[in-house]
Structure formats: structure tokens, C-alpha cells
Amino acid sequence: MENDGINADPLELEKFSQLAHRWWDPNSEFKPLHEINPLRMDYIEQFSGLKGKTILDVGCGGGILSEGMAVRGANVTGIDLSDKALKVAKLHLLESGQQVDYRKITVESLATEQPHHFDIVTCMEMLEHVPDPHSVVQACAQLAKPGGWVFFSTINRNPKSYLFAIIGAEYILQLLPRGTHEYAKFIKPSELARMARAANLTGEKIIGMTYNPITQVYALEPDSSVNYIMAYRA
Ligand SMILES: C[S@@+](CC[C@H](N)C(=O)[O-])C[C@H]1O[C@@H](n2cnc3c(N)ncnc32)[C@H](O)[C@@H]1O
């Protein structure tokens, strides 16, 4: 569903708004994001470092990644379209004393406003919630400086990811509320790679993000069959 020509699904935004007050509770529905956060920040740092970098975090939600990168010394702008998530993100800055510039703006509009502005663009766990992920990938590429880095994470689309990301995470382990994810919106790495190539992104790297339900530990591993991160240069 499109929203007055804006590349956003109002129902998706509403889902996140409804849960937003629990964003910073590490035992809430956002527990998985809290737990993967150090892993993904370490992964980004391997490529480019974070200290002193100008970073855009697209679909920042309550700010777990944005603020985490600010703690590591980055100058972060976080954008989202959920008013409540942005409000929670801003309130949390009062508690943490960190600085992040949170804005409600579409990534496509920001790409027109500030093209080639950011050293790093992150777009994590967001593409599978938008009607047109191509357009988001294109805008992220445009927002990065030439030679800058762009990172996407999302969920693969295959029977295993259906089993793990929907049946396992939402129904059996109840790590996420039912209805968090829609299988048809999952994105195969080959599809994301095609979108990235069309946006002139290069130097592709991919890493899997796995969850072991027995040890309850997340890890970065070559297995990209469920969750994965792709890194590119603009
Ligand atoms: C699963 S959360 C991920 C939050 C954050 N990126 C992270 O990984 O910690 C998805 C976020 O994408 C946001 N979102 C969904 N559609 C969006 C859009 N079209 N533009 C910007 N943000 C969007 C939601 O409001 C929500 O905050």
C-alpha cells in the first residue's frame, strides 16, 4: 500500500508506533535489535570505522543503532516516518546525553536535499517493511559520498527463512509479535544485489546474521539463508 505517493506503508509504521514506548527495554519485542546491535556496529567498523564519521541511519526507529554509533564517536542523523518511534529516540537522548539529529523525512526527499553528503549510510531491518525497496536503495546510494559506504540488512526469502523468521521468531519463540514480518516482502540477496547494481553501488560484501535458539546467541557467520547484511561502496 502506498501513502499519497510516499514510499511507506501506513500499517507498517503503525505497527512500530504501537510498540515504540518499549523500544529501549532490552527484554521487549526489540530484544533482537538490542542483541544484534554490537555485532552490526562491529561489522560496519571493520570497513570504515565510526569515530568522526558523518552517518545517516535510515529507518532508525527508536534509535538503537543511531545512538550506538553516536556512542562510538559518529555524527549521526537518524530518519524515520513513525512519529512515536522518533519521539522515543529523542527522549532517550535526554537519558543518555548522546547527540543524534533525528528527523521525520523520507529517504527519497533527503536524497534530493543532501545528495553525496554522508560517509556511511545504514539501512537496517527496514527494506522488508517498505512498498518499494528499490527506491530506498537508490536514495541510500545517492546520499553517500563518492567512495562512502552503504549497509543494508534484511531477511532472505526461502522456506528456511519463513520457518525461522516467521514461524520460529513470531509463533514458537515469540521473540517478535505475530505479524511483524510479511514473507512476500523478504528480499533475496540476489535481488538486493540487483537493486544495488542499478544504483551504481559496488564492492559487494555479504555476511549472515544467525540466531541459535538453544544458546540464544546471535552471530555473524557466512550463512545468509535467513538474516543478512550487505555492504557496498558508493
Ligand atoms: C524493524 S525497525 C528497525 C529499526 C532500526 N533500523 C534498527 O535496526 O534498529 C523498522 C523501522 O523502519 C521504519 N520504517 C518503515 N517504513 C519506513 C519508511 N518508508 N521510511 C522510513 N522509515 C520506515 C519503521 O518505522 C521502523 O522504525
UniProtKB/TrEMBL annotation:
<dbReference type="GO" id="GO:0061542">
    <property type="term" value="F:3-demethylubiquinol 3-O-methyltransferase activity"/>
</dbReference>
<comment type="function">
    <text>O-methyltransferase that catalyzes the 2 O-methylation steps in the ubiquinone biosynthetic pathway.</text>
</comment>
<keyword id="KW-0489">Methyltransferase</keyword>
<keyword id="KW-0808">Transferase</keyword>
<feature type="binding site">
    <location>
        <position position="124"/>
    </location>
    <ligand>
        <name>S-adenosyl-L-methionine</name>
    </ligand>
</feature>
<dbReference type="InterPro" id="IPR029063">
    <property type="entry name" value="SAM-dependent_MTases_sf"/>
</dbReference>
<dbReference type="InterPro" id="IPR010233">
    <property type="entry name" value="UbiG_MeTrfase"/>
</dbReference>
<feature type="binding site">
    <location>
        <position position="40"/>
    </location>
    <ligand>
        <name>S-adenosyl-L-methionine</name>
    </ligand>
</feature>
<dbReference type="GO" id="GO:0032259">
    <property type="term" value="P:methylation"/>
</dbReference>
<keyword id="KW-0949">S-adenosyl-L-methionine</keyword>
<keyword id="KW-0831">Ubiquinone biosynthesis</keyword>
<comment type="pathway">
    <text>Cofactor biosynthesis; ubiquinone biosynthesis.</text>
</comment>
<comment type="similarity">
    <text>Belongs to the methyltransferase superfamily. UbiG/COQ3 family.</text>
</comment>
<feature type="binding site">
    <location>
        <position position="59"/>
    </location>
    <ligand>
        <name>S-adenosyl-L-methionine</name>
    </ligand>
</feature>
<dbReference type="Pfam" id="PF13489">
    <property type="entry name" value="Methyltransf_23"/>
</dbReference>
<keyword id="KW-0830">Ubiquinone</keyword>
<protein>
    <recommendedName>
        <fullName>Ubiquinone biosynthesis O-methyltransferase</fullName>
        <ecNumber>2.1.1.222</ecNumber>
        <ecNumber>2.1.1.64</ecNumber>
    </recommendedName>
</protein>
<dbReference type="GO" id="GO:0102208">
    <property type="term" value="F:2-polyprenyl-6-hydroxyphenol methylase activity"/>
</dbReference>
<feature type="binding site">
    <location>
        <position position="80"/>
    </location>
    <ligand>
        <name>S-adenosyl-L-methionine</name>
    </ligand>
</feature>
<dbReference type="GO" id="GO:0010420">
    <property type="term" value="F:polyprenyldihydroxybenzoate methyltransferase activity"/>
</dbReference>
